[in-house]
Design a protein that fits this description.
By secondary structure, this protein is mainly β. Helix content is 5%, strand content 50%. InterPro entries: Cell_Proc_Reg/RNA_Proc (IPR050923), FHA_dom (IPR000253), SMAD_FHA_dom_sf (IPR008984).
Amino acid sequence: MAKIIISHDGQVLQEVQLSKDRITIGRHPQCDVVIEHRAISAQHAAISTALDEAMIEDLGSTNGTFVNGRRINKQVLADHDRIVLAMIQIEFVAGPVAASKAAAAAMPLGHVEVRSGPHAGKKLPLSKPLTTLGTPGTMVLAISRTPDGYMAAHIDGAVPPGVNGAPLGTQPRKLVDGDLIDLGGTQMAFSCP
């Protein structure tokens, strides 16, 4: 299982196993990982995991989120990436992924079919651990392929995409065969045998 090692001034403060699909990091007591440092925003960043991929996302923090020295909004993490939140250093350590890869490989392959717009009829296979659809800054939907099925979450943009007429939140929601996705007026259908 992947984990993060949090340190400050060379001293390890804590190690956290990434056992949930999404963990929040910040100063607020309701965050999954609480870092009590005045330069850390109340809700500073979040790490989402799906199979063997982890993605870090800045949650509009004041001092920013940096990966390997570069300020990011969102970025897929690689083993031993160095994350900096204000004065706090975090090392991402990827865990063993063979079991989750085998479980995902046994799962039927799903796809989305575009039902409206200029790309109507186009089918997009959902073969990667994480597929993003949409336009960054406007509206982005992430579909992750997990051993339990396909999960969808709104990860970017002021207006969330919809699933079966209801707005999609940032917490992952399981997709079922026949779900209709509305991505900024483009209609898509999810299918998984």
